[in-house]
Q: What sequence folds into this?
């Protein structure tokens, strides 16, 4: 087999602050050893992909031409991106597709002709050469769309549950909870008997989560949000939070509410309660700073949370148990829903970019690189 | 023995926001069981005492009369203080004094006539009734002044070192590092072979720390502060910080510098390095919010740090080992220096309040309740 040619999306930041996102033709060599060549059928656009694709670049006033976008990166963001300047970067954390060629290795040979789901970057492309260990064969009755989001959201939802259990917490607070990830978390915590307080931003999102059986849903747009949040935390005993937003004061509001619940009926202590309270920031829907008011005593932790280091720390056995659970429940507990489907060309159009880059909770887009 | 009468300082916040700090006469019963009665000789004013004594109340425009101050608490601060409203609170975490009476218990009897150092609150008073377990007998050659600050600062300095070692860190960043606590930390880390980066705010403080042998001292008022901070972190390998300030961006600056050092020479990763970075906030010299820019990847923790829960978690054996080390080195490693000495009456005078409540780094005051 000779080389295979196909389109691939690249994002390149120049030193002068110009960000170029473009489709280029890529030539992939034949797979060797444990490598497989996958024809990509579906790849979701996750918030974590958007950070690499555009980051805080100004997409509204960018120049759009066929297969190419040139946008300006704001000056304050350049410092944090120094390490990527001048490097053409592939984008797309996960995808599903069909193995069309394989190296001689047995792990690769076992996947020939199989539909697989993959993690590993560079997935916004027509073809991907990847080690067999980065692939998971899908059950026969799972479609490419159903298998496209089998890693990031499902493993993150299970990672939250594992983190909460390991920390001795009996209930979780989750923000931006109407997301695909949030819906998975509602279902998983129900099955696992863990409490969950869902924070959303609109009445529609309250209805959506109630519709799938969520018990505690609080709307941060309501005037009595803080009282309701405190009541839900008291009802569930939540002492850990996972926050997708990052910027602003919501992490402080959650820790403050946990502290108020922990201090109920206690004598005044200037140092606050001794109840451990832990908030994990796993996303940056708001890229502004996290504002910690520290109005919650001295017994608190705020941490970054990211799937790969979590999996590394949890160990191979836990990771494999989690993967198995996802594979067995892809069309139920871990089902994803998509707002729209885009070809690679369409994904570089202005209307599409403005829509999916708005990161509206629960509105997930899917790229179909081979039409 | 009948009751003993003496002056005691109380801080009371009324519902209308008026904070009254006053000296009242207190009548203490004779000690029983394991209790001892201590005539207090010296009690330091620590930043942690000022939070309870005045908090953010407006002491500049308060009414001062003999043995009484009435100040106004700003409205935004009242919410966090709801639990103390209407309660007359004693102040003063630690002190030294002489045991003048004891209960029948052997632990109490063993202390009769001894000079002791104590922790337990209510120390801004002429007498204190306390359980023998809250006292530590001082060596004969230690004066009341030398023994007055034997708990809060020394145990905190050792607590930082224990926390850093337990987390696998080989060097510490410390802010407001010219404080009495900071000077102890310089000496302890030298003995223990742990790296230390001292952040101070003036050239005078740089000179002070260099004078006691500190190797890495960076001045946040210098134009090239961030570069120097990064260099000092690179030179020491510091991955943990203890911050006395709380408000503002210094925690972010430290984590950002640690991240830059960890990423040197690495390929670009939008998620940042996998180097654990931990900042502990142990004080609130700036009561404003902690601003986390999150410009330091996803592998980070920011936590509150407080001595009592640390000691509880560390266990009795570690705590006793730390106490023993303090007792053995009170006039060397753990020596404190005082800016001025005040009687209880003087401590309620306007000039004195404005001076000690300014919390100037390294300017510690001592109350001598019995003249």
A:
């Amino acid at each position: 087999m000779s080389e295979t040619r196909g389109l691939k999306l690249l994002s390149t930041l120049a030193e002068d602050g110009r960000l170029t996102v473009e489709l280029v033709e890529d030539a992939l060599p034949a797979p060797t050893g444990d490598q497989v060549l996958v024809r990509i059928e579906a790849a979701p656009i996750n918030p974590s992909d958007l950070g690499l694709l555009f980051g805080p670049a100004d997409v509204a006033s960018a120049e759009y031409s066929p297969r190419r976008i040139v946008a300006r990166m704001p000056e304050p963001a350049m410092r944090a991106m120094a390490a990527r300047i001048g490097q053409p970067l592939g984008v797309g954390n996960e995808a599903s597709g069909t193995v069309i060629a394989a190296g001689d290795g047995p792990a690769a040979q076992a996947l020939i002709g199989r539909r697989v789901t993959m993690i590993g970057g560079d997935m916004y492309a027509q073809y991907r050469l990847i080690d067999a260990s980065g692939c998971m064969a899908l059950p026969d009755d799972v479609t490419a769309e159903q298998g496209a989001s089998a890693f990031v959201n499902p493993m993150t939802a299970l990672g939250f549950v594992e983190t909460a259990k390991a920390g001795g917490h009996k209930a979780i607070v989750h923000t931006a909870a109407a997301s695909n990830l949030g819906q998975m978390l509602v279902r998983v915590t129900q099955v696992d008997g863990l409490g969950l307080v869902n924070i959303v931003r609109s009445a529609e999102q309250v209805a959506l989560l109630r519709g799938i059986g969520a018990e505690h849903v609080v709307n941060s747009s309501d005037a009595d949000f803080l009282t309701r949040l405190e009541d839900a935390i008291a009802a569930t005993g939540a002492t850990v939070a996972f926050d997708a937003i990052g910027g602003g004061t919501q992490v402080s509001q959650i820790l403050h509410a946990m502290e108020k619940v922990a201090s109920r009926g206690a004598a005044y202590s200037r140092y606050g309660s001794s109840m451990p309270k832990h908030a994990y920031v796993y996303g940056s829907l708001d890229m502004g700073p996290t504002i910690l008011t520290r109005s919650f005593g001295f017994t608190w932790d705020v941490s970054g949370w990211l799937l790969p280091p979590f999996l590394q720390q949890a160990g191979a056995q836990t990771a494999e148990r989690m993967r198995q659970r996802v594979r067995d429940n892809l069309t139920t507990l871990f089902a994803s829903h998509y707002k729209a489907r885009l070809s690679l060309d369409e994904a570089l159009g202005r209307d599409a970019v403005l829509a999916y880059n708005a990161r509206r909770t629960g509105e997930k887009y899917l790229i179909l690189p081979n039409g």
Q: What stands out?
A: The interface with chain A takes residues 48, 51-52, 79-81, 83-84, 87, 89, 246, 252, 263, 266-271, 274, 281-282, 284, 289-295, 297-306, 308-309, 312 of chain B (CB under 8 Å). The mean pLDDT of chain B is 94.
